[in-house]
Amino acid sequence: MIGYRFTKYLAHKDLSDTTFDQLFNVFNELLLITGGDVSEALSWLTNIDKQYNISNSEYGIGDFIDDLKSKGFITDKTPDGSFEITAKAEQSIRKSALEEIFGKLKKSGKGEHKTNFTGLGEEPGTDRRNYEFGDLLHQISMTDSLRNAQINHGLGDFMLTEDDLEVVESEYKTQTSTVLMIDISHSMILYGEDRITPAKKVAMALAELITKKYKKDTLDIIVFGNDAWQIEIKDLPYLQVGPYHTNTIAGLELAMDLLRRRKNKNKQIFMITDGKPTCMKQGIKYYKNSFGLDPKILNKTLNLGAQCRRLNIPITTFMIASDPYLQEFVKEFTTVNNGNAYYSSLKGLGDLVFEDYKRNRKKRY
Q1: Is residue 270 domain-shared with residue 331, that is, in the same domain?
Q2: Claim to verify: residue 251 and residue 229 sit in the same structural domain
Q3: Fewer CB within 10 A of the end CB, N or C, for the chain?
Q4: Tens-digit pLDDT profile for residues 50-101
Q5: What is the pLDDT of residue 115?
Q6: What are the Cα distances from residue 76, in Å, to 61, 72, 167, 212, 287?
């Protein structure tokens, strides 16, 4: 019999690769919860594996640790021989957060920086126009210009004049400077609810989105407790809550100072918090009041919100709480700033951040 016999294709399944991926996903989550403590994360992973049997007889936690080292995700080349995550692992965590929170971008195709305006820019468009004095050489479409010269002057007496030149219009794309404020006060882990881990995940997803897709944009990250200070993107996995009050004023002042140095016209502030402002600094002393909304702290916070409005800096507040009086505070703060506010569950936080990021960044002030 001449011909071929076809049978069902059975792909070879590499159990070690599959198990590594499963363990690695859990390991990344544990790193966020433990603030980047590799040893604690591995200890938790071992207990989870004991309960849910993620590994198998052919590939155990010991093999997983060896693979983490060989693949460059962790290292034990430290002064005390303890494990630490590497820059590769930090990027992997950010990428994982991006895929989890903004993964729907691949299907929707949204999230570009395009506007309806043409002008100075780096992206060539499809529109053509006549050459004008001041246009740059690289903007001239040589193919179209030569064609015009042939039509206007013929092939026998070929010449290229200024009237033959056509220029490719550049598409104007907006650039945005964003400051992301993250509340690290003690209330972010109170009442048995972990609110800081989702906040970190959103921050890492946003950072990965901007640094990889919108490379000309800027992102500054601020954490605020009793005081406010700037952190690097690489520090996000290690972020932990402290025994702090909520000094929203210090966070806003630092955010405004950072944006003041940026030359982009589009500027915005994102603030992820779960509580009211309870602290402000007076000289070298702290004024604190955790009982209700203190008028002294509240008025200063509202004044800064109004100041941001005058500077065309919208503030989007993501309140991870449902208390009526907290919502009333956010409503008043949003009104004076003319910004946006969301009262979100932790599950929906990522989607809300992204939707508002697209909306604000397309504005031209």
Answers
A1: yes
A2: yes
A3: N
A4: 898 888 888 999 999 999 999 999 999 888 888 999 999 998 898 888 887 7
A5: 47
A6: 16, 11, 58, 29, 44
